[in-house]
Amino acid sequence: MSLALDPAPPREMSARETPARVRPPAVVGEGRRPRPPAPVPLDAVPGTLALLKGLRDNPVATWTRWHFEQPIVHGRNVLGSAAVVSDPAVIRHVLVGNAANYDKGELQRRTLGGGLGTGLLLAEGDQWRAQRRALAPLFSPRHVDGFKRSMVEVADEMVERWARLRDGRRIDIANEMARATLRVLGRTVFSEAMSGPEDRFARVVSAFLESVGQVDPLDILGMPAWLPRLGAARTKPLLRYFEEEVTAILDKRRALLASGAPAPQDLLTLLLAARDPETGAGLSDDDVRANVVTFLIAGHETTSNTLTWALYLLSQHPEERAAVEREVDDLMPEGRVDPGRVDDFVRTRAVLEEAMRLYPPAASITREALGPDTLGTLRVKARTLVIVSPYVLHRHRLLWDAPDHFHPSRFMPENRGGIDRFAFLPFGAGPRVCIAASFALQEAVILLATALRHVRLDHAPGHEVMPVQRITLRSRGGMPMILRRR
Ligand code: HEM
Q1: What is the CATH number of the domain that holds 66?
Q2: Nearest 5°: CA angle at 82, between 81 and 84?
Q3: Most buried by CB count within 10 Å: which residue of 164, 223, 287, 381?
Q4: Does residue 14 sit within a domain?
Q5: Which residue out of 133, 434, 471 has the highest number of ligand 1 atoms within 8 Å of its CB and is therefore the one to mutate?
Q6: What is the complex's ipTM, to 2 decimals?
Q7: H-only helix segments in 98-172
Q8: pLDDT of 375 over the 60 cut
C-alpha cells in the first residue's frame, strides 16, 4: 500500500543519503516507445480525506513526484509517522540487517488477516520461525524441479483450449492467466483438482482478493476490529466457501493417508508431513488450513498478473515480441516446453522480470518498527511505519535509466549484473523473502513461453489500461485481448 505523506519541511524531503547509483546499461530509443500506462505521480500531497479515498480506490495513484525522486521521504499523516524508503542500502538494513526490529504491522494484519489467519505470510515471531523452517523444504530446488511436469501440462491444456476458439476472438487474458495459475496450484498443492468446479473456485478467489485487499479507512484510522468494515459483508460468505473447500480437501487427504494408500507427492502431503527440524513439531490443523489458503492467495494472482502484464507489454512492443518469439520457436520445436530446458528461456524470463519491474504484483512491502532505528541519517521511533514500495523503487529516478519504459534487455544475463539486489524487489528480500520465488518464476516462464509459441495476442480496442492495487497490482477491468494463432 502506498502513502502520500503530509508535506514535510524541505529539509525532511531532501535526500538523506545518496544511494549507490545502480544504472542499468543505457537504453536507447525510448522516445519512440509507448510509455506503459501508470497513474501520473501527484505534484502535491493530498489532504487527509483525499488520501483516505485514494488509499481505498487505488493506492498506487497516491504517490507524489518526491517519492520517485528522493531516497527517503519521511513525514506524518493519518497513518502516523511513516518513512518511504528507496535507498537500496537502507532497504537492506530494514529487510535484512536489522530485520529483527520490524514486524509486518497492524495495518497489514487487518487488511489481509481475514483469510490468511496464522499462515506463513502473516505469522510473526516464534510461530513464523517454526513455520518457515517446516515449510522451506516444500520449495526446495528438488521439489520445485519436480513440479515442472505439472506446469507444462497446464500450459499445454491452456493452448489446446485456445486452439478450439475462433481466430480473432476477444478473450480476457487476465482471466485466462488466473485460471492457468490456479490450475497449477491445484496440481502442485492438491494433485487432483479442487473438489468444486475450478472456474467457480477461481471466481471466488478473485472476488475474495478484490474485497479483502481493499484498504479500509477504518483500518487506517486504527478503529477497533468489532466495527463493521465496508467489505466485510461481501468477504464473509467467500471466506466460508474457502474454508469449506479447503477442509474438504484436507479431510479427503487425511483419509487417504490413513488408509495406507500411496499419497501423491504434492505440497499438501508435504505440508501434512512437515516438521520443524529443531523441535520435530508438525503443524496444527488450523496452521495447515491457513497455509493452504495462504498458498492460494499469495500464489495465484501474483503470478497471473505478472503474465497478464507481460503479454500486454509485448503487445505494445512488436520488436520485443518478435525477439522473444524467436527464442520460444528455437527452444520449442515440438511446441512444448522441455522441462530440462526451462533455464534456457533467458529472454522470456527477462520479459517477465521487466514486467514485474513496471508492475510489481506485490506493490508495497510494509514494516512497523518495534524499537527506534536509524535509516541512513534519519532517526525513527518505535511504531514508525517503514514502507518499501517495489512500485516506487522500480521506477525511481535515481536508480533506473528510462524508468517508465519497457526494456527487457536490462534483465538479459549480460546486463543484469548492473542491477543492485536491493533496487529490484518483486519477491522482497531477507528472512521474509517470498518462499516460492523460484516456483513462481519457473511457472511463469513455462506458461508465457507456451502462450507465445502458439498464439499472438493484441490488446483489444476500447479498453483503457490502468494498474490498480488491491492485494496485488491488477489491470483495471481485466485485460481484453484479441487471440490469433501463429
Ligand atoms: C510472481 C509471483 C509472486 C510474487 C511477485 C510474490 C511476491 C512476494 C513478496 C514480495 C513477498 C514478501 C512480502 C513481505 O516481505 O512483506 C512474498 C511472500 C510470500 N509468498 Fe510470494 N510471490 C509470488 C508467488 C508466490 C507463490 C506462487 C506462492 C505459493 C505457492 C507464494 C507464497 C508466499 C508466502 C507463503 C510468503 C510469505 C513468506 C514469509 O513471510 O515467510 N508466493 N511473496
Answers
A1: 1.10.630.10
A2: 160
A3: 287
A4: no
A5: 434
A6: 0.99
A7: 106-116, 125-135, 141-146, 148-163
A8: yes
